[in-house]
């Protein structure tokens, strides 16, 4: 019977037994591993999220390529070290990045790999995972970035505005603006009085680039309702352009008048960075003449 067929026939409990046997061969103290509360949770999540092929394949790679250097020889009656204790953070991060880049485009495969990677950590490794995300961003692997962040959030970790900003950016770069919009509504948009302007500006840019004009104006009006002044003229310009496209010229005029102090004067008297319409330019020239 082919190896892949046998692997598919393995039950989830048999897979976990196989992983435990591999670890025991590396002289790892299984009891010390199981006392870690997160380890227990991570193993449990593997049985729910990963298919047999993914866990088996990643488990083999993780054991043969990485864990062989993790274990130490026992000394006397002392407890053996935790798996991965003597491997540098840099090597662990590189291993996970390379693994994620090699995986097929499957949510189950990615989640299974992440579950296996964190299964031997004493605490949830949010710091190293942030570095993994930065490396994936550098490779412009936006789809993988989305998958990793969603997995982190599914563990109840990383619920910060920084993580939300990173996810919205990745969704936009992965051409999933509608999904970014849905995430914004669900997790962020109901609390506009405290959302950082940096994140609001990002969402306005997402709407602007993807021609989601009604959503853009709704977001900006929501911010204005809390009397929040935009910190940058580029935000005002995007909103003004949107009003013009929608035919709301009165709203555009109101907006530019309200935030005119954001635009500094230049040598010819025109506000810096402000794009005038043709009729506005003619009117300005007539006034100067």
Walkthrough of the structure:
By secondary structure, the chain is an all-alpha fold. Helix content is 66%, strand content 0%. The protein is built from 16 helices and no strands. It has helices spanning 3-9, 12-25, 30-34, 37-49, 52-66, 89-102, 107-118, 126-138, 142-154, 161-173, 177-188, 197-209, 213-225, 233-245, 249-258, 278-288. It starts with a helix and ends with a helix. Residues 267-289 are annotated as: Disordered. This is Pentatricopeptide repeat-containing protein.
What layout of secondary structure does this protein have?
Blueprint: H1 3-9, H2 12-25, H3 30-34, H4 37-49, H5 52-66, H6 89-102, H7 107-118, H8 126-138, H9 142-154, H10 161-173, H11 177-188, H12 197-209, H13 213-225, H14 233-245, H15 249-258, H16 278-288
Helix pairs in contact: 2-5, 4-7, 5-7, 6-8, 7-9, 8-9, 9-10, 10-11, 10-12, 12-13, 12-14, 14-15
Helix content: 55-70%
Q: Give me the number of helical elements.
A: 16
- Mean pLDDT across all residues, rounded? 76
Helices and strands, in order, run as HHHHHHHHHHHHHHHH
The total strand number stands at 0
Beta-strand percent range? under 5%
From the alpha-carbon coordinates, what is the Rg to the nearest angstrom?
A: 27 Å
Shape: elongated
Structural class designation: mainly alpha
Q: Which spans have pLDDT < 50 for at least 5 consecutive residues?
A: 3-13, 22-52, 63-83
Query: For the report, how would you describe the main beta sheet?
Result: none
User: What is the CA-CA span between the terminal residues?
Assistant: 91 Å
Biased composition (Basic and acidic residues): 280-289
Protein name: Pentatricopeptide repeat-containing protein
Region (Disordered): 267-289
InterPro entries: TPR-like_helical_dom_sf
